[in-house]
Amino acid sequence: MSEADGGPPLLVAEGLTKAYPGVLANDHVSFSVAHGEVHALLGENGAGKSTLVKMIYGLVRPDEGRMMLEGRPYAPHRPSDARRAGVAMVFQHFSLFEALNVAENIALGMEEPPPQGELSARIREVSVAYGLPLDPERIVGELSAGERQRVEIIRCLLQNPKLLIMDEPTSVLTPQEVEILFRTLRKLSAEGTAILYISHKLEEVIDLCENATILRHGKVVATCNPREHSARELAELMVGEILTPPHRERAAFGDVVLEVRGLSLPATSHFGTSLKDIGFSLRAGEVLGIGGVAGNGQDELLAALSGERPTAADTIRLSGQEIGALGPNERRALGLLAAPEERLGHAAAPDMSLTENALLTGAVRERLVRRGLIDWPRSRAFAKRITEVFDVRTPGTEVPARALSGGNLQKFVIGREVLQRPEVLVVNQPTWGVDASAAAAIRQAILDLAEGGAGVIVISQDLDELMEISDTFAALNEGRLSAPRPARGLSVEEIGLMLGGVHGAKVEEGADAGA
Amino acid sequence: MDYSAIDPVLLLATLMISATPILLAAIGELVVEKAGVLNLGVEGMMITGAICGFAIAVESGNPFLGLIAAALAGAALSLIFAFLTQVLLSNQVATGLALTLFGLGLSSLIGKPYAGVKPPASPHLDIPLLSDIPVLGPIFFRHDLMVYVSLTLVAAVWFFLKYTRAGLILRAVGENHDAAHALGYKVVRIRFLAIMFGGACAGLGGAYLSLIRVPQWTEGMTAGAGWIALALVVFASWRPWRVLLGAYLFGGITVLQLNLQAAGLAIPVEYLSMSPYIVTILVLVYISARKGRGNLDAPASLGRTFHAAH
Fold first, then answer.
1. Which of A400, B162, B204, B252 is the most exposed place for a label (fewest CB within 10 A)?
2. What structural domains and CATH numbers belong to chain A?
3. CB A18 within 8 A of CB A26
């Protein structure tokens, strides 16, 4: 696609350097993107990918180095300069306004938006043309993650960009949505739009990209065609060390530690899902993976298990004891711990220090509070132990939680629960938006915990992850849980059927497209 | 008891006058909050506007100049708030409270020589035909100019927020300042402008009290009107027309209870005095409680400090 014209590449970056206090985020980074090419930017969290694309998009100005766009010098001072030059960007954390409707959101990202009526018509037209149907009148707050991303993509496409930057676009999508997105990106690439694709999901990069620039610690360590390498090789280039996939000895399961029978909970809001007659049992040493498309009751299930939403006492039993009516702290005392999905705001209080966050869930089991008074030295020691054991990279335990990168905070949040030696641990999306080495560390910690005799429930939308670590697998679909089955030997089709229900049609469509 | 003394026409006419100061302050604060800033200094800016407007009107003999001075004074005071919260990133709640205390003190200081002085009269609208219509004329067409200015302002704010691109950007900044920044909008500059607009409106509201409604200067004469305006914005779910409704409801019941007191109604005065507050709150709570789904009311970034990192 790209080599045909023989002209200058679309974008050339030479020696881009950007230093922040204490870190050299980008150190003389050079690379180029050809017209119509899908170019991957690979690297771990903190490797400097985001800084690099922010420079290309005009959000950050480089300290040194220069860029050329279509053979002309290119130095955007602000995003609108970049947009005018034909560079558009879809952000990792969606830059959308929840209270505004789709058309208003799109208008905000355009330089000279047409009047609302005309814009709505164009949104419908473009969204259908690229297979991303979207209703311009809907309020963004009501949309799913996949639909929100469509809003961002359509916003970019309406400006006919020459270069589309996508920052971790698939981290929030279901497999079906990923398939739809890839079809759109391939169509765009065929039409001559270059795509700079930032990811750490290597299978995707191999599937989609023709070229890859790999960053480590702010430097380019390799440029290659990802299709000529295995995911393992790319990962090792990214991380700079040999990766060992998580493993454990096959352990015999012990007695049932957690038993759930007839758990039903009405939804708390219009957008929530009700849980319907959920039942399963979890044995000591077992990892139960619960898959499912987002919004099918994952958050509700976690809330019911952790005790955030108490239910009838006899629906949940921990080692035979009825705990359904108990709150989170009582369940913690008995040995049932949980780590919810959202790191900032749910699993951790963003503005409180790591010590304080460690104290918040560790108070009971680690005896960090005595006679109503906080034992600060013990709390600090506990937080320090978490950062050491789980390799949480932080200047200290007194920094606020929000200052940590996603992967580091996730390691902290999981480590905090694991170190409290739970009988049963429930985690939701344990490696969401986390880089390869951190994800491997977290998965290994979960397996080690199970090997030590705890029961673990992993709720995740990442099927590869579930297949890698689960002993048994069950699927959540519209608030119902399928009967758990041994994970080993489950085929993709069988999993699709388990996830299926009314989603069956979508799964088939995705499978067809993949074929 | 003698209810015949209560003239419904006069009641409706005075309702608008009594509501106008709160309406002006509230519509200004609505814009500020829509931009994601919580300025609790409304009371302070109102009373500063009241005395500055009063002083300039008295010195120049021109009430119009007084009103302009009031708007400028309110905006100038709000600029202090804007600088502290947007540039120095101070806490908005604390800074707003400090602004109110500062404004109250400053106004007493400036106002010392003006106690008991009579300001120049403000011209009233007198449209030959319209003003002479029985009933409707006195209710709608014989007020001072500021009543109409305040109504126009409500309509203008509504139109600005709903239909203009600048209004959309302002709402976007209040909704998610990080996203707005990522799209390249100048969050701090937009908030500065919104805060100054809010200050000017509050100043005008104060001057309306001292120059037209009372008209006289007494220390602390706003008597909590700024706080009512703040509460109105919240109870009105940040919607301009509901702010108008709330302000007129509050103004109407204030006037009505005064009339009822004069007529000697057999209810303790204290209950009558609290009735405007209670009724306004009940009505607006009722409206906002039966909102439909997907109605995301408060601007999501309201009161949050914006760090323009990286």
1. B162
2. 11-239 (3.40.50.300), 256-343+423-514 (3.40.50.300)
3. yes
